[in-house]
Design goal:
The chain is mainly alpha-helical. 65% of the residues lie in helices and 0% in strands. The chain has a domain at 60-186.
Length: 191
C-alpha cells in the first residue's frame, strides 16, 4: 500500500513539474574526486593522533611502510625539537645564573623576572617535548618497529619519562658532554 502511494506521489510530481525533472535529468554528473590509495594512507597517517598507532595499522605493505615512515618522521622531529629546546634552555639557564652571580636576585627587578620567566618557560617546554617523544616511542613499540629507537632498551626513554627524568639531566652513552660515564668506567671497583 505504501509503495502504491509513493508511486502516485512520484507520478503526480513528475506530471506537475516536467521542466524541473528534465533539467535535473540532463544535468551532467560531476566526476567524484578520486583519491589514490597511497595518497589516502599518507593523509590518514599525517592527521592520525599518536595514541591510535598500533599493530592493526599494518594491514598490508603500503600501510606498513607509511605507518613506519610516519612514526620515524615524528620521532626524528620530536627528538630534534627536544634537543633544540635543550640548547635554548641551557642559554636561558646561563643567563639566569649570570643574574645570580651579578647579584640581581630581586623579584621586582625586570631583568631578573624576564630571565627567570624565560628559564621556567623553556623548562616546561623541554619536559613537554620529552613527553611527546616518549609518546611516539610508545606508539613505535605498539607497532613493533623497535629498530626505529636508537637505544639498546627500546623502552628506555619511556621509562625515563614515566619516572620524571630527563635525557639532558641524566648522562647516557649517547649524551655525556661532561664525561661523567667515562669517569665511572675508569674507576677500579676492586681498589
Amino acid at each position: 500500500m505504501a509503495n502504491q502511494v509513493l508511486f502516485q506521489d512520484i507520478a503526480s510530481f513528475l506530471s506537475e513539474s516536467p521542466e524541473w525533472v528534465e533539467t535535473w535529468v540532463s544535468t551532467p554528473v560531476k566526476k567524484k574526486p578520486s583519491i589514490d590509495f597511497p595518497d589516502f594512507v599518507v593523509s590518514l597517517f599525517d592527521i592520525l593522533p599518536i595514541e591510535h598507532f598500533d599493530r592493526s595499522l599494518k594491514l598490508n605493505r603500503s600501510w606498513y611502510k607509511e605507518c613506519r615512515r610516519e612514526l620515524e618522521n615524528r620521532r626524528n622531529f620530536w627528538v630534534k625539537r627536544y634537543w633544540e629546546t635543550v640548547e635554548d634552555y641551557k642559554e636561558a639557564r646561563k643567563a639566569l645564573d649570570k643574574c645570580w652571580t651579578d647579584g640581581i636576585i630581586s623579584y621586582s627587578e625586570p631583568h631578573y623576572i624576564q630571565r627567570s620567566n624565560r628559564y621556567y618557560e623553556l623548562f616546561a617546554k623541554k619536559e613537554a617535548d620529552f613527553r611527546v617523544w616518549a609518546d611516539v616511542d610508545r606508539a613505535i613499540l605498539r607497532c613493533g618497529f623497535l629498530d626505529l629507537i636508537d637505544h639498546g632498551d627500546p623502552a628506555f626513554y619511556i621509562k625515563m619519562c614515566d619516572w620524571g627524568l630527563d635525557p639532558y639531566e641524566i648522562p647516557t652513552p649517547g649524551n655525556d658532554p661532561e664525561g661523567i660515564l667515562d669517569y665511572w668506567d675508569d674507576e677500579d671497583p676492586d681498589a
